[in-house]
Amino acid sequence: MMKIMMACILVISLALAGCAGMSSTQQRTLSGGAMGAAGGAVIGAIAGNAAMGAAIGGAAGLAGGYLYDKSKQSQEQSYQRGYQQGKQGY
């Protein structure tokens, strides 16, 4: 179990270190996938199949990271529209 945890920490560290120079969408998608894979591997190890858990967790994390990024982009666009409308009012 300790080896799996150390491997997960290593994978997450390398993934986050490799995020320099990426767009926010790429960063959030990759980070979500890495965190999902790590969580899935831990749960899968407890259930008896770490590889399957990592694959399922990684896919879910990728989707979650992508959807989170789209939500954040929508919020930023709404903020910018409101900011521009507020500037025009003065």
Map the helices and strands.
Elements: H1 2-17, H2 24-47, H3 50-88
Helix pairs in contact: 1-2, 2-3
Word description of this protein:
The protein has helices at residues 2-17, 24-47, 50-88. The protein is 88% helix and 0% strand. By secondary structure, it is mainly alpha-helical. The termini are far apart. The longest helix is centred in the last third of the chain and has 39 residues, at 50-88. The protein is elongated and about 65 Å long. It contains three helices and no strands. It has one domain (2-88).
Sheet having the most strands: none
Shape estimate: elongated
Which structural class is indicated by helix and strand composition?
mainly alpha
Q: Which blocks of ≥5 consecutive residues have pLDDT under 50?
A: none
* Residues in helix, %: over 70%
Secondary-structure element order, as H and E?
A: HHH
Percentage of residues in strands: under 5%
Distance between the termini: 62 Å
Total DSSP helices = 3
Radius of gyration, Cα only, in angstroms?
18 Å
Compute the average pLDDT: 85
- How many domains, as an integer? 1
Find the count of extended strands (DSSP E, 2+ residues). Answer: 0
